[in-house]
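Homework-ish question, so no full write-ups if that breaks the rules, but can someone show me the predicted structure for this set?
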Amino acid sequence: MNQKAKPVHAPMSQFQTNGEQLLVNGHPLNLLQYQAGQTPFYAYDRSVIHQKVEALKHYMPDELKLHYAIKANPMAAVVNYMASLVDGLDVASGNELRVALNTGMDGHLISFAGPGKQRRELEMAVASQTTVNVESLNELKLLRDISDQIGIRARVAIRVNPDFELRGSGMKMGGGSQQFGIDAELVPQALTLISDYGLHYRGLHIFTGSQNLNPDAVISTHKGIFELADRLQESAKSELESLNIGGGLGIPYFPGEKTIELAPIGEHLSDVMTHFSKTHTKTEIAMELGRFLVGDSGIYVSKVIDIKESRGSKFAIIDGGLHHHLAASGNFGQVIRKNYPVAVGNKMHQEATESVQVVGPLCTPLDLLANKYELPALEIGDLIVIYQSGAYGFSASPRDFLSHPHPVEILV
Amino acid sequence: MNQKAKPVHAPMSQFQTNGEQLLVNGHPLNLLQYQAGQTPFYAYDRSVIHQKVEALKHYMPDELKLHYAIKANPMAAVVNYMASLVDGLDVASGNELRVALNTGMDGHLISFAGPGKQRRELEMAVASQTTVNVESLNELKLLRDISDQIGIRARVAIRVNPDFELRGSGMKMGGGSQQFGIDAELVPQALTLISDYGLHYRGLHIFTGSQNLNPDAVISTHKGIFELADRLQESAKSELESLNIGGGLGIPYFPGEKTIELAPIGEHLSDVMTHFSKTHTKTEIAMELGRFLVGDSGIYVSKVIDIKESRGSKFAIIDGGLHHHLAASGNFGQVIRKNYPVAVGNKMHQEATESVQVVGPLCTPLDLLANKYELPALEIGDLIVIYQSGAYGFSASPRDFLSHPHPVEILV
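A: Not a homework solution, just the prediction itself:
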């Protein structure tokens, strides 16, 4: 290689290669495209998920329960696999609850959060003895009625909107005025209602934000959560059985972002949990993670179906696009469009030699999946891989936009 | 009313009211929610669509053909209704072509545009004698092969990426380097290939942008389109049968935006068409519109299922949200979030007395449908109406995000 040689077109570190092919849990991509039955497809790698869960368990205290938040990736096969690795499942809708129960997991190990739960959804939760993370005082009344109707005491935790914020999170979900949870200062009133209504008080759910890559911010949040839980529990009429401390751990998507360090988070958590357990001897502490567990296990694979030059720019047109992967197009709530990491999955050892616009088949300039991206020389039939696509990809995309065929999903 | 009274909570002018109820083509919303079978639902008003088409025809030259671009709203009932009002249908995928043909419209009256058309889709077009708006030279080769295979001469028009831009359009789709169309300077080469390959040359499709509210910009674009068509046609080996001048007419969404004036556009178009027809005696001129024809006919209706205060802000939680109507949440490619026009469909004559956050049931702060919106005092069960929802609503939303039930669509 001469001095001007471009960097080798490298895979992300969670994936291996064999020759020119990207491997998904040992399966080369050129075969996997046939196994999937079509392009475009999402492929999720069991071994990457497994490693991620193991790494987390390694650094976190043994006593910490690990929950999977289904909303990140609700594919039934993924949820089934996760159910074998974690201690509980968290759901955000009645349909997600159905998927969770279908794994065979006991309702006692499932919790259900979300503003605006429907009566039908709350009935599903009460009947299956799922813990409802209550987000308003009205919801408590509804649960009392449903408990009477079904003859089962609803299991409730209070989702708390804390009086502090998680610094540096990609998405703020606590602090200030919020649609989520019950404001900390209203929790005593909610605790009284739970007692008055004869509901089964399970505990507290304190979640402040997501996609955080800064361990110090997470540590400071954990500190705040345990202090707040201790303070709020003073008004409770029964013991704190469960404390869900949320998740919030992020994964890197864009240049300059790094994998979050788990060691300091685990060390700090161990200390605060030891301290907390002295006064709350029967409390199970759970961390709830979605994106962090599955996000980097997934790739979105589409095929180059046309290549053209237009006034000095090269366009590779693929058979997928923003309708399949809205977040990667940069159009899902992002203020500034940034490229997700991209590779040519059948040319993994070729050097990046040209700057390309990778675009989808939609009649809109929004359908841009890689902007001025340095890739090996492309040909029709090449497989474009978008990494970090295991969470909020398939399910969070407008798949009927322009009525093209949907992608498929495989767990490998 | 005293001097400080807030303005009456008025409907948008295309809809009527009866008492407190918003009317959709004469149907009061309190009944329509039962007719739809559920909330949330999209309702499209036939009379509004009809009036919009008639208004356009009134101002445009009689010789101008009017096409409906299905991508704006592909609901089969809407497309069927539009097929009875317009002269042609334009599709952006094979599945849209199927919907168009299902109306009974002849393939000769349909055209198919979009980068990255699949072989299967091109076969559908050739077999149904639909005009393919070709967007790359590779596509011409594919059409030659398919013509041989099926034994029908493909009907092709060239989608041109012009060498000028539509000023002031909400979305730029022509000029500069583009994934859309064939650069104007490459059109002579494409015309030669069409002739060499023995394809049926239909004409040109010149589309430069969408959602334009400035008549002067549209007029200047029309001028450019006819000049460019005249110039490009010099290289053609056969007559210009068809010229599709695109659409680009916008509708108002946000405060300060006004309905685009059609009279000056029609007058100018009449002049340039008269002039153009002197040298191109057999050319049919078509305008292709999607959003403009259906956008203001549609409302998205959801029900208030919970109301809560959090630290001084009032939140109304509805049974729908961004998963049903991504654009109204401001998260679909918009840089700055703005509120769509919103009303309480069962309190149309009540004054707006409070500022509310209207949020959906999703566990994300992105799920915000109206931010600090002045509305009448809300109660659980009230029907929140989002106007201007007839285009790019249902089909352009990530309906499986968090696995809540989908909305339904009705044409009234």
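Now go work out the reasoning yourself. Hint: Chain B touches chain A through 69 residues (CB under 8 Å).
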